TrEMBL record:
Any Gene Ontology biological process: phosphatidic acid biosynthetic process
Record keyword Transferase present: yes
Keywords: Acyltransferase, Transferase
GO molecular function, one term: 1-acylglycerol-3-phosphate O-acyltransferase activity
SUPFAM superfamilies xref list: Glycerol-3-phosphate (1)-acyltransferase
A family per Pfam: Acyltransferase
Domain (Phospholipid/glycerol acyltransferase) ranges: 29-142
Domain of life: Bacteria
Organism, scientific name: Siphonobacter aquaeclarae
Pathway membership: Lipid metabolism
Record bears the keyword Acyltransferase: yes
Protein name: Acyltransferase
Length: 186
């Protein structure tokens, strides 16, 4: 019932989905960018309902307070991330992939809605360690479209793989001029 409501609201707001939706992949890291507004949460939940694939997501632990909010966010597939401690979070997520036959997780590598000078690379090493593909996903606010790219298996060569990411994200228009294109194209 909630899934149908979220999918209906997604369509009602004028959003569409474009590109190869990864229905046949039981495991992947979803790399969503650019992450520039809190509206991304609603677009993401709507898109997830629309494509009918359950995808967990990572979010800062501060969003999971107070308790009723924590319950809701976890029910919606959220995993809290403690950004203040140096935990081996990548290995924890790789273990989740290894423990489940199906596991998909959404990551916003910017790590914040603010402009940053570089991406957090945890998503890359999660996929590399779990030997699962990265699925690129752009929230194109100019076209009101959620764009999916072909699954990409990281090679371990960040500089080379960054160029593949840039090729996809160069076509995405965020809510403001996106720094991500400039970063990935360097």
């Amino acid at each position: 019932m909630l899934r149908r409501l979220a999918a209906w609201l997604f369509r009602l707001a004028g959003w569409t989905v474009s590109g190869p939706v990864p229905h046949n992949l039981p495991k992947f890291v979803l790399f969503v960018a650019p992450h520039a507004t809190s509206n991304d949460f609603y677009v993401g939940v709507g898109a997830r309902a629309y494509i009918n694939i359950w995808i967990y997501y990572l979010a800062k632990k501060e969003l999971f307070r107070p308790a009723p909010v924590s319950w809701f966010l976890k029910k919606m597939g959220g995993y809290p991330v403690d950004r203040s401690r140096h935990l081996n979070f990548v290995d924890s997520v790789v273990a989740l992939f290894n423990e489940h036959e199906e596991f998909r997780i959404c990551v916003t590598p910017e790590g914040t809605r603010k402009d940053v000078s570089e991406l957090k690379t945890g998503f890359y090493y999660m996929a590399l360690g779990a030997q699962v593909p990265i699925v690129f996903c752009g929230f194109d606010y100019g076209r009101k479209a959620v764009l999916f790219g072909e699954p990409f298996y990281p090679t371990g060569n960040w500089d080379a793989d960054k160029k593949v990411m840039a090729a996809f994200f160069n076509q995405v228009q965020g809510t403001r001029k996106s720094w991500i294109r400039n970063y990935l194209n360097t």
